[in-house]
Amino acid sequence: MIVEICVKHKVEYCPYLSEAQKRIRDIDNKVKHVGYSPTKLDCINVMKCMQDLVSKLRDAEIKLGEEIREEIFKAV
């Protein structure tokens, strides 16, 4: 996942990326491993987190090194 790669390499805006990754992973793990059905509030919280992330990244110019870029391309 692109977010995981960026967090691993401490790309700019890492705190926002880390928070989004954590919230998504928490819900995803519950769904996969416990059969959890997310509540409306769970969904709202994750969507809000993603909206915050997108708003921070929308106008940002993030510079990625060649190594990180290659890792992202391989993941996609």
Give an account of the 3D structure:
This protein has 76 residues and is mostly helical. Helices cover 74% and strands 0% of the residues. It is built from four helices and no strands. It has helices spanning 2-8, 14-34, 40-57, 66-75. The model has no long low-confidence stretch (mean pLDDT 86).
In the predicted model, the low-confidence regions spanning at least 5 consecutive residues are none
Largest sheet: none
By secondary-structure content and strand pairing, the structural class works out as: mainly alpha
> How large is the count of helical segments?
4
- Tell me the overall shape: globular
Gap between N and C termini: 8 Å
Helix-strand pattern, N to C?
A: HHHH
- Beta-strand portion reads under 5%
How many beta strands in the DSSP annotation? Answer: 0
Number of domains: 1
**What integer is the average pLDDT?**
86
- Helix coverage percent of residues? over 70%
Output the radius of gyration: 14 Å
Question: What descriptors fit this protein?
Answer:
mainly alpha; 74% helix; 76 residues
Outline of this structure?
By secondary structure, the chain is an all-alpha fold. The protein is built from 4 helices and no strands. The chain has one domain (2-75).
